[in-house]
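Tutorial, part two.
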Amino acid sequence: MTEPVKGPASYFPSIEKKYGRPIAEWQELIRASPLTKHMELVGWLKSEHGIGHGHANALVKHALTEK
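Running the prediction step on this input gives:
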């Protein structure tokens, strides 16, 4: 039996389904942004791309961890 996905990645299937872009594309957008602080990036995703807070937070956390 496989372990359930935990952490930010647990949001990824619903993010892709709801917003129509693959996670890799969101990660590229976040990394290309001139913003560097977590909450600045979350706010940017919410205001510019209409992403909900929880989904934006998961994307940013994952992107900043992977840098």
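Residues 7-66 form one domain. In part three we will examine how such features are distributed along the chain.
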